[in-house]
Specification:
The structure holds 2 protein chains of 2 kinds.
Chain A lengths: L6 H21 L12 E3 L11 E4 L2 H5 L4 E2 L6 E2 L2 H10 L17 E4 L17 H12 L4 E2 L6 E2 L2 H10 L5 E2 L5 E2 L2 H20 L3 H19 L11 H8 L24 H14 L1 H10 L2 H7 L4 H10 L30 H7 L4 H5 L20 H12 L8 H9 L15 H13 L5 H9 L3 H11 L6 H33 L25
Parallel strand pairs in A: 2-5
Antiparallel strand pairs in A: 1-2, 3-4, 6-7, 8-9
Helix pairs in contact in A: 6-7, 9-10, 15-16, 17-18, 17-20, 18-20
Chain B lengths: L36 H21 L2 H14 L6 H18 L3 H8 L6 H14 L2 H16 L5 E6 L6 H11 L7 E8 L2 H17 L4 E7 L17 E7 L8 E2 L7 H7 L5 H7 L23 E2 H11 L4 E7 L8 H22 L5 H20 L12 H10 L2 E4 L3 H13 L5 E6 L2 E6 L2 E11 L2
Parallel strand pairs in B: 1-2, 1-4, 2-3, 4-7
Antiparallel strand pairs in B: 5-6, 7-11, 8-11, 9-10, 10-11
Helix pairs in contact in B: 1-2, 1-3, 1-12, 2-3, 3-12, 3-13, 5-13, 6-7, 6-15, 7-8, 12-13
Classes of the chains: A mainly alpha, B alpha/beta.
Chain lengths: 530, 459
């Protein structure tokens, strides 16, 4: 065969040969009755994983042949050339064992002869002869081995054996009734199953059912072996599973990996379709998938082990605010639980010595937040002030209840407000507060006016507030009222002006008459804001 | 004359310059400056209560005077009482201003809310105050205990903002002796970016520890939440975590019709502003929140959103639902009730901050303004559907949950122990923790602040 520069030409050549050989091949694997056709070799360096590897494209017959090497004397077939040579010794035929070549072994990669297969492309060649054989059997071959317990069929004997070992031993059952023997596939299925189940519950149209069926089929097949071909036919078994509306209570097994199907390489075509379905119908799910795409392989590869986790957890230093690393005092890992890192004492260690999960969590969550101690020297906290205010005003008890605060300013109290100031000036202050409180709508402003005046007399009153003076209460009250008009005008000069100017601008509001700086106040009523 | 918004200059001013935020007007009452801090504090309390009384009774002029007085004494960067007074007076002014919707809207029209700042501030709240951490620790512990032996765990976070809680849960779950379960998380938030960030952080964490993990983001507010979106499968072991969310649903969904209440009032020719305020047409109708006493057949009956929400959650048959809520009654019908309760409550919180950070700290300022100040404003100034911060006492919540079909799951001694240690690590004497009927309450001195309780589906 002439070496051709274009790989496509080669492919066509191979196809041609394959088609010629296809028919007899599919019938059976002949026990070495016909001499095997020569294998074709082609050097091709077009972008495969090992660029300088030799690409070998075998015909299906060659691939499927079990005994490629036949003894010419007794027609006994051998799988390996070396075995044949050794056998030839027995016939006293000249034999030569092929030594392992001294020069470095040339890497070989193999192509799948099936032209529709992805691995037919040299860029996707597989690196192992056994691998390509198995692949060809599994995907393009006939399934001759059947599991006894379940109805699964396999083309490769080793697959079948491996399955038989685990069939029925450990099962994960999804809500929809599908059984899995592998955790990862179970998880993967479940990830889609809820969405699919909801979809199927909502749109009970046949097309969606069938797509769901094919998804389930694909997933269930995937569950058995990652490399298995997804048959496009719906087996009745799967349809039955799909049809069973009842959801047995799921038996949940420890599930190791997140396992999103997108991450599994072998059957990308199916998942592309599947994912598109998902994307159309559940954007959340799709978003989830995107987040997870990088992690799934990781999850599938590793089996989490508890010890490893502990080690990881203890050694990692997370920058989180929560400071979830183990307590700095405690150097031991989480698995060793003793009372050493508890300041609590004996009873603590008994709680945790059993090695349960609580002990894991114990040293986890303490962050020494950067508390800056600000010594509030000589300053009363707001809480204390409130309590004091309530005490000063309340008639009955100082329960600290909410109403006491109101009472302190809403009722006339016997206690003096100024008691807290350590003076003997309480009386007038108390009456001041009294009058303020009792004033209600009308005269409160005037009381304010009186109270806030800058007049010397009132200043003295406020000195009394501070404990310097002691004037008779009633004097002040009367002086308040007498000074009311004048004070008001004067004191509210600043304030009143602004209020008036604001008012003037608010022509649309019928409020002008209600604000009167002369002390006439209209009570707006006793209604409360709700 | 409205309260100056002095805090708008926070970001640019030097923190050492305390005078920068003080009122710049020349105080006509110089004696006010001579007040000792204690006296000033007491006087501020008095002024606040008086002002609120005036506002509640519609006495705007007097309220104005009181606010003016307060303005000379209060300051967002003074001592605790001064700060409290500044935020409360701002809230009262906000409330008054709502009587003029046009002015109110114009006044707020140029406000910019920077989402990054908000996220940062909530992280600060998490870092400097122990409450969130305690809530996380206890919630996680309750979830772990409930999920013992479960292989598939589904956790729903009603407000997925802080991934730390779930990182901790992932760590704890992956370290449990029977092996890690498969963990599915559903996070609810109204902003997609927050959920994406959370998904990223948690997925990374789970990968590191080889814990099978899925994150299911649900972009929605709690009010409009569609339970179907949560994708809870039957038979799944479900845990729900709600940290300071459920109280937002205590308002009632009552649609007053297309017209705003103020317009209707105007049409009805209400004469004075005071009458308007008295009838509280401006802020909307806010009925009793305790019970559905009105006939359900009446078209104007308010529908408490919480009941529907709780029954929907109950319908998911959660194995455990851990709820953290503020333990104080800020949902009173009258302004005065709410004011006095919230004065005590936020005084305690401001004291916490005082003990945690220095007065000049910008973080503290921001937390006070953007978290506490906003809550206060919502409690004091808002009514009806707008008022979201409807905190209630623990007993009321417990009754509500029992009524909705949940059974209490007492929090374990171990959870309490962890919380205690956490509080100890904060090196502050003020924090106290106590147990109340199986629930854990975090207090400041004697004032209960936050309560954590766990519930399960009960037939």
């Amino acid at each position: 065969m002439a070496a051709s520069s274009s790989s496509s030409f080669l492919a066509m050549r191979e196809e041609h040969e394959n088609q010629m050989l296809q028919q007899p091949l599919m019938s059976a694997v002949p026990p070495a009755q016909t001499p095997p056709p020569p294998s074709k070799k082609r050097r091709n360096q077009a972008g495969n994983p090992n660029p300088d590897a030799e690409v070998i494209a075998l015909s299906p017959k060659t691939l499927m042949a079990t005994n490629r090497f036949v003894c010419e004397v007794c027609n006994k077939g051998f799988q390996r050339e070396q075995n044949l040579q050794l056998h030839r010794r027995g016939h006293n035929l000249p034999w030569k064992l092929k030594q392992k070549s001294s020069k470095e072994v040339k890497r070989k990669v193999y192509l799948c002869p099936e032209p529709t297969c992805v691995h037919h492309d040299p860029a996707r060649a597989l690196g192992d002869l056994t691998g390509i054989k198995k692949h060809y059997s599994r995907k393009h071959g006939e399934k001759k081995y059947k599991c006894e317990k379940c109805s699964k069929k396999y083309a490769v004997q080793s697959d079948w054996k491996a399955h038989s070992k685990t069939c029925g031993t450990r099962e994960y059952r999804c809500d929809c009734g599908t059984l899995f023997s592998r955790r990862d596939s179970f998880i993967t299925h479940r990830a889609f199953c809820d969405a699919l189940a909801q979809e199927s519950a909502r749109n009970l149209t046949p097309p969606s059912l069938s797509t769901i069926g094919s998804h389930l089929l694909g997933l269930s097949q995937m569950s058995t072996s990652q490399d298995q071909v997804n048959s496009p036919r719906l087996s009745s078994h799967d349809m039955l599973r799909l049809g069973s509306g009842s959801r047995p209570s799921p038996q949940f097994e420890p599930i190791m990996s997140p396992g999103y199907p997108r991450s599994l390489p072998p059957s990308p075509a199916l998942f592309m379709q599947q994912n598109q379905e998902e994307a159309d119908q559940s954007p959340h799910h799709h978003g989830m998938l995107q987040n997870k795409s990088s992690s799934s392989l990781h999850g599938l590869m590793h089996l989490p082990q508890l010890q490893m986790n502990n080690a990881n957890a203890s050694s990692s230093s997370t920058p989180s605010l929560f400071n979830l690393t183990f307590h700095p005092n405690n150097g031991s890992t989480g698995s060793t639980i003793d009372g050493s890192h508890h300041s609590g004492g004996g009873d603590d260690s008994t709680l945790f010595s059993s090695g349960n999960l609580m002990s894991m969590a114990l040293p986890s969550l303490y962050s020494n937040s950067p508390t800056i101690q600000t010594p509030t020297s000589g300053h009363m906290s707001a809480t204390a002030l409130l309590q004091k205010a309530a005490q000063l005003g309340s008639t009955t008890s100082n329960a600290g209840a909410s109403s006491s605060l109101l009472k302190s300013f809403g009722k006339s109290g016997d206690h003096s407000f100024g008691g807290g100031f350590g003076g003997n000036n309480g009386n007038h202050l108390h009456d001041l507060m009294n009058s303020i409180a009792a004033a209600g709508g009308g005269s409160s402003a005037s009381m304010y006016g009186g109270a806030y005046s800058g007049d010397q007399q009132d200043m003295d009153e406020y000195r009394g507030f501070h404990g310097d003076n002691n004037k008779a209460a009633f004097d002040h009250q009367s002086s308040f009222s007498s000074l009311e008009q004048g004070r008001l005008t004067r004191d509210f000069l600043g304030v009143g002006e602004i209020v008036r100017s604001v008012r003037e601008q608010q022509n649309g509001f019928d409020m002008g008459s209600t604000f009167d700086s002369q002390g006439k106040r209209q009570a707006y009523g006793g209604g409360n804001f709700q | 004359m409205f309260q100056e918004d002095g805090s708008s200059s926070v970001t640019s001013s030097s923190p050492l310059n305390l005078m920068s935020l003080s009122p710049s007007l020349v105080c006509p009452h110089p004696w006010l400056k001579d007040l000792k801090p204690e006296e000033r504090g007491l006087y501020l309390i008095h002024l606040l209560v008086t002002c609120a009384n005036h506002v509640a009774s519609g006495n705007l002029e007097n309220a104005n005077i009181a606010l003016d007085q307060i303005s000379y004494l209060a300051s967002p960067d003074g001592d605790t009482m001064q700060r409290i007074a500044s935020y409360f007076s701002e809230s009262l002014a906000d409330r008054i201003l709502r009587a003029w919707p046009g002015v109110y809207k114009a006044f707020r029209s140029t406000r910019i809310s920077v989402v990054a700042e908000e996220i940062l501030v909530s992280k600060m709240f998490f870092e400097f105050l122990p409450f969130m951490k305690v809530a996380f620790v206890i919630s996680n512990q309750a979830i772990i205990e409930a999920m013992e032996g479960e292989k598939m765990v589904h956790v729903i976070d009603l407000n997925a903002t802080e991934p730390t809680q779930w990182c901790a849960l992932i760590r704890d779950l992956s370290a449990r002796p029977e092996g890690p379960p498969h963990l599915k998380m559903t996070g609810i938030h109204h902003k997609k970016e927050v959920l994406e960030q959370m998904a990223h952080v948690l997925t990374e964490e789970a990968e590191k520890l080889d814990l099978p993990f899925q994150f299911n983001p649900v972009v929605s507010t709690l009010e409009d939440l569609d339970i179907e979106k949560l994708r809870v499968k039957t038979g799944e072991a479900l845990a729900i975590s709600s940290i300071m969310q459920l109280h937002t649903l205590l308002g009632s969904s009552y649609d007053p019709g297309n017209r705003s209440p103020f317009q209707r009032a105007a049409l009805m020719n209400q004469g004075t502003l005071g009458e308007l305020l008295e009838k509280d047409m401006v802020n909307g109708y806010s009925p009793s929140n305790d019970s559905v006493s009105s006939s359900p057949l009446s078209p104007n009956v308010p529908l408490p959103k919480i009941e529907g929400f709780l029954s929907a959650l109950w319908g998911l048959s959660p194995k455990v639902m851990v709820v953290t809520e503020q333990d104080s009654d800020h949902n009173g019908r009258t302004l005065m009730e709410r004011l006095s309760e919230s004065l005590y409550y936020y005084a305690a919180l401001f004291d916490c901050l005082e003990s945690a950070l220095p007065r000049a700290s910008l973080e503290r300022l921001k937390m006070e303004k953007m978290i506490l100040g906003e809550e206060i404003k919502n409690i004091i100034a808002c009514e009806g559907a707008e008022r979201k911060e409807r905190h209630e006492k623990l007993e009321k919540w417990n009754q509500r949950f029992e009524f909705a079909g949940f059974g209490n799951v007492p929090l374990s001694y171990y959870a309490m122990l962890q919380a205690k240690r956490l509080l100890q690590s904060f090196n502050c004497d003020g924090y106290k923790i106590k147990e109340d009927n199986g629930c854990v309450v975090v207090c400041w001195q004697d004032r209960p602040l936050f309560a954590v309780s766990a519930w399960r589906y009960r037939r």
